[in-house]
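STRUCTURE:
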């Protein structure tokens, strides 16, 4: 049974979340529902994998401010296409 939930969030966060949902071809409601299900579930096999960034928000672990994301992504691509 679906129920309506109203949240107050930062406008910038909402816009980024809408863009993310659009890129993933999913509704924002579905993404938030899956995230909350993951947080409250003991099941180790979520419907889709939550990105490390989102996990860092949930766990309180901070992403280093000096993280060279371009190098990290480049290394990832080099490893992927070896």
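SEQUENCE:
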């Amino acid at each position: 049974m679906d129920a309506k939930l109203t949240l107050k969030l930062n406008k910038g966060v909402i816009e980024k979340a809408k863009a993310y949902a659009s890129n993933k071809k999913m509704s924002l409601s579905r993404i938030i529902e899956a995230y909350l299900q993951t947080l409250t579930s003991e099941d180790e096999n979520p419907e889709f994998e939550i990105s490390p960034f989102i996990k860092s928000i949930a766990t309180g672990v901070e992403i280093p401010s000096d993280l060279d994301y371009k190098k990290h992504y480049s290394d990832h691509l080099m490893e992927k296409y070896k």
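REMARK: DSSP finds four helices and no strands in the chain.
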